[in-house]
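Morning F.,

Quick status update on the modeling queue. The single chain you submitted on Monday has been processed. Sequence for confirmation:
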Amino acid sequence: MSDTLKFVRHPHPNPTPADKRAALLANPGFGRVFSDHMVTIRYSDAKGWHDARVEPRAPIPLDPAAAVLHYAQEIFEGLKAYKTADGGATLFRPIENARRFQQSAERLAMPKLPEKIFLEAVDELVNIDRDWIPDGDGSSLYIRPFMFANETFLGVKPSSDYLFIVIASSVGAYFKSGADTAVSVWVSQEYTRAAPGGTGAAKCGGNYAASLLAQAEATHHKCDQVVFLDAAERKWIEELGGMNVFFVFNDGSMTTPPLGTILPGITRSSVLTLARDKGISVREEKYSYDQWKADAKSGKLREAFACGTAAVLTPIGTVRAPDGEFVIGNGQSGARTAELKKALVDIQRGAASDPHKWIHKVF
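Structure tokens below.
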């Protein structure tokens, strides 16, 4: 199977006027303002990957018997495009998104999209819609590649047809409270996100659907996010509803839950590398809720932060659970969180050197 495709461009006949686009970009929020175009690529067992198009963003015709509606064969990714000082655009580690997309596809019995085609599809969309990249501090163009089963068939089996799509959304800060304001989290002790042998390490919609009831519980308790414990012992911290988590101790060291049942976050991986570059001791090991509570109360734990593509690095200030609540540090962002966030964002936005060659320039 070829790892390249020819993309046919069909530019939008009536793109959003510049003044209307500027008004939308002034305060885009997160995930509600969309660019003019999308990329679509089809797959069938008979043809492989084919029919690559850049076209106006539009509704998707879908048969009521499409396999995704019944058996949830669907995966997605999330990455950001940033505007450079010279008017160009860059992406942060998109090859890692392409590789994780393949891993998710394998776990859900879906065809693997070649890495090169994934990157070409993202480049095509960012190139044609680069005017949708906001200028504001903390703003970017959020890219959402996704794939779903669209065979018209009700038997329980892997689909023979798939549709891969890339859309883009101009975004600001993920949390309404702001990029550097500490968030509160609810420790779910009734619901779990993933179990050994499950789909926890895959980026599939079902994982997020299963988290929504727990997130609603967190909202009910006036928390911004939910934290999940492991499914086997209901003891070990795993991750938030849509983010990985790190803990910073008063000896300067850090720890984060190990991979296995959690998503292998690209921001998580980047934080590990940046911390080690700075000589910070970082461990990937189990950390229990009881220990988290004890370390916060004793002062051994100095900071905690969530991290992900959408939220970048977000400090955790207050932790609530059925047995009460506790505050981490002074309840605000800490120095280590701020230091690592700045190091990451400076690389992403071209304000610092890129020793690991993480930045991808869009053609």
